[in-house]
Design goal:
The complex is a heterodimer of chains A (303) and B (419).
Chain A lengths: L1 H33 L2 E4 L2 E4 L3 H8 L1 H36 L7 H13 L2 H11 L6 H8 L13 H16 L1 H12 L3 H9 L4 H29 L3 H7 L12 H10 E2 L2 E2 L2 H26 L9
Antiparallel strand pairs in A: 1-2, 3-4
Chain B lengths: L1 H23 L2 E7 L5 H15 L3 E7 L2 H14 L5 E4 L3 H8 L17 H4 L12 E14 H7 L7 H14 L3 E3 L7 H11 L1 H4 L2 H9 L7 H13 L12 H9 L3 E7 L3 H5 L6 E4 L11 E12 L6 H11 L2 H10 L4 E2 L10 H12 L1 E3 L14 H14 L4 H13 L7
Parallel strand pairs in B: 1-2, 1-3, 5-6, 8-10
Antiparallel strand pairs in B: 3-8, 4-6, 4-7, 4-8, 4-9
Helix pairs in contact in B: 8-17, 11-17, 11-18, 17-18
The chains are: A mainly alpha (303), B alpha/beta (419).
């Protein structure tokens, strides 16, 4: 009797599970499997962990990989240090009850998020272009022309510039999430604080911030996953070669070049899958670290 | 009910449609290509000329975007939906298709007799025993310059490297024009219009290129490092912020008349013709000392082959024979100035700039880009590395010697004759 009554659960779950398996789980595991093969004289040959040995052991492959991973970390750090604090600050300002035109600011800040990467990459390339861009003429107008450099073309600035462009595009997301979290803080808590003499900025630091910490955690992990999967902006702005001199090469572009090939280089799906597997492992490790080490220790408050 | 009717209607039209097509007894050939820029030229000039001479064969030109072409073509060939005629990229991309049985062997095609061995080399097996595409055109490298600017500043067309740099100095000193329009943002121009443009003069064209393939020369030899040394001097003459200047930026700088010299490939000719309002001239890469023999990069770039699975092979061969004829060569070279026929028959061209480019074939020795045949098969890829090294040389972030050593090490890591 109990088994019969539970059959409908499987039936109702089936469509979603089947679709998800077909378009997500199966391709994912197939990619992981592909990493264990190489193409030999007679088609595909099983080679165990050989590809990983090449990726981490061969000086040329490993140099590219560590370069890409290092760049990825820098990309992530810039987002964590710039995007998320600005997002929190903007949300705090927007949630201020006496701010006028809050809805207007909110939409204006959020709009870049809905733009395509291609448009953002192209628009910023034009803005920063040393030849036609408005950035050099704007700096010139305030007499700071000497500060201008062809940022996207210099090894030392290109990656940071792209990271800041990405921050500009996505700062709306942490802002929205934190804004929602701030709105859900009950008035009574704040009023109780006021009675105890906690007002203004100290109300933010002592009451609101602890209450939105879980949201900040979620934003951090979203930023981490998004940044380590990033590809589009770099590809749109700098091309698959991630110039200058691979200084903006992140795991996504490295994977793309390897998997699909580039110019005269033919694609290598097996090494490409190896890189994809490494990316998967890195992201998985990061997410697990967050879930088990940080989130479980975070204090939650029930209202 | 309505849906059933609709299905019936659709079914009927398909059956009727194919019946009509069958009754006409026409064969339709479809051409796969990456030259979507040339769509109107094929539709208005080339295909009508062929169809007029060959009633009963219809031709359709169905190009895709250049960047997607290789991937799209491979999947179409695998799925069996590719067209009858395949436009061939030079060297390994097409060789891989032939080895995979996707392209038919065309060695016995009559029109093949109209092409020299060098012209066919890009679409042959390594031992030269089989040719699988009919060569269509090559592109020549050199420098396009603004004649008005040269006249204004009293500069002669440079013949030697010393003249070349003297000219650049003069333009820079005057300050009206940017001496040379090239950027390093997209990287490939530095290698294609830089290294492989001026390089053949140093490595003596085919002689050095083949010696490198045989393993008799190394990328650390003076002949292969010296071009980087010249590129390192270019940096000072490029526009402000050239590090972030893209390929379209460079084209615009030159066609707007803001730059005096443009390191070029002949494929720019038709585009530039429609944009500039000054007179353009061209010169081949200046030689090291007066009287030295000159070498130019005359790169075999485009050909057309037969899909091995095509059901219309006979009609397709008729078309390919026509592509190999002098008639096609004249038609194509004039419709697309800058894409030069590889046909042995001389082709009369009307465009003066194109004539200037092609006249170098008589004065100089032709070669192809050094990295294209065989040497870019492995990882690290020599072509991509050359882009990178050329950019580094121009910016001065890597010395020419270090770049040569890095490239040699990479090549030797997988290419046996260099080990």
């Amino acid at each position: 009797m109990t088994t019969k009554s539970r059959l409908h659960i499987a039936v109702f779950l089936a469509p979603a599970v089947l679709v998800y398996t077909a378009v997500m789980i199966w391709p994912l595991f197939n990619t992981l499997r592909l990493a264990l093969y190489t193409s030999g004289e007679e088609g595909r040959v099983f080679s165990g962990l050989m590809n990983f040995r090449t990726l981490f052991g061969d000086p040329r492959w490993s140099e590219s990989f560590w370069n890409a991973l290092g760049n990825n970390f820098w990309f992530f750090i810039v987002h964590m240090l710039v995007q998320n604090p600005i997002g929190v600050a903007l949300a705090a300002i927007l949630s201020h009850p006496r701010l006028r035109f809050a809805a207007l600011y909110r939409s204006a800040i959020f709009i870049p998020t809905i733009l395509s990467f291609v448009i953002v990459g192209f628009a910023w390339k034009l803005i920063l272009s040393p030849i036609w861009g408005i950035a050099p003429s704007m700096l010139d107008a305030v007499g700071l022309k000497s500060l201008f450099a062809p940022w996207l073309g210099k090894e030392e600035y290109a990656l940071t510039t792209l990271a800041l462009i990405s921050v500009w595009q996505f700062v709306g997301i942490p802002m929205m999430l934190i804004y929602a979290a701030l709105l859900s803080i009950p008035e009574e808590v704040l009023e109780a604080g006021e009675i105890d003499g906690i007002t203004g900025a100290s109300a933010f630091w002592k009451i609101k911030l602890p209450l939105i910490l879980p949201s900040i955690g979620i934003i951090s992990i979203l930023t981490f996953v998004g940044n380590f999967n990033a590809f589009d902006l770099i590809y749109a702005a700098q091309g698959a070669l991630a110039g200058p001199d691979y200084s903006t090469d992140i795991l996504g572009t490295f994977l793309y070049r390897t998997f699909f090939g580039f110019q005269l280089q033919l694609g290598d799906p097996h090494m490409g899958s190896t890189i994809a597997t490494a990316m998967f492992a890195i992201i998985l490790a990061g997410v697990c670290l967050y879930l088990f080490a940080i989130q479980t220790r975070m204090r939650r408050y029930q209202f | 009910m309505t849906q059933k009717k609709l299905t019936g209607l659709l079914l009927a039209t398909t059956v009727l449609g194919s019946a009509v097509a069958a009754s006409a007894q026409d064969v339709t050939l479809t051409i796969e290509s990456w030259r979507n820029d040339d769509l109107s030229i094929w539709q208005d000039k080339i295909i009508p000329a062929f169809e007029a001479a060959n009633p009963g064969i219809k031709v359709q030109f169905t190009p895709s975007a250049p960047a997607e072409y290789n991937a799209a073509l491979n999947s179409k060939l695998d799925a069996g939906t590719a067209g009858d005629l395949i436009t061939c990229r030079p060297f390994d991309a097409s060789l891989a298709l032939y080895d995979g049985g996707k392209l038919a062997d065309l060695s016995d095609l009559e029109a093949m007799a109209n092409f020299s061995d060098v012209a066919k080399s890009a679409w042959q097996t390594d031992d030269g025993s089989a040719t699988f595409c009919v060569p269509m055109a090559s592109v020549i490298h050199g420098f396009i310059y603004n004649k008005d600017a040269f006249a204004e500043l009293g500069i002669e067309v440079p013949a030697t490297e010393a003249d070349f740099f003297a000219a650049l100095d003069k333009i820079k000193e005057d300050g009206t024009y940017i001496p040379m329009a090239m950027g390093t943002n997209d990287q490939w121009e530095a290698a294609t219009m830089g290294y492989n443009n001026i390089g053949p003069n140093y490595w003596k064209g085919e002689e050095g290129r083949l010696a490198l393939i045989r393993g008799e020369q190394k990328l650390t030899d003076e002949a292969w490092v010296a071009p980087y040394r010249q590129l390192a001097r270019w940096g000072a003459y490029l526009g402000d912020g050239y590090e972030a200047q893209t390929y379209p930026d460079s084209q615009n700088l030159f066609t707007l008349g803001r730059a005096a010299i443009y390191p070029a490939g002949s494929w720019e000719i038709s585009g530039f013709n429609s944009l500039v309002d000054f007179e353009m001239g061209a010169f081949y890469p200046p030689v090291q000392a007066a009287g030295d023999e000159c070498y130019i990069s005359d790169h075999t770039d485009i050909a057309i082959g037969l899909n091995a699975a095509s059901p219309n092979a006979d009609a397709a061969r008729t078309f390919l024979n026509w592509v190999g004829s002098a008639e096609f060569a004249t038609l194509y070279a004039n419709a697309l100035p800058g894409f030069f026929s590889l046909n042995s028959a001389p082709v009369a061209m009307e465009d003066p700039l194109a004539q200037e480019f092609v006249s170098w074939r008589d004065k100089c020795n032709s070669t192809i880009r050094s990295t294209y045949q065989i040497l870019s098969r492995g990882t690290p890829n020599l072509e991509t590395e050359t882009w990178n090294a050329s950019v580094n040389a121009i910016k001065g972030t890597e010395t020419p010697e270090a770049a040569g050593a890095r490239l040699q090490e990479g090549l030797a890591s997988w290419y046996e004759p260099q080990q």
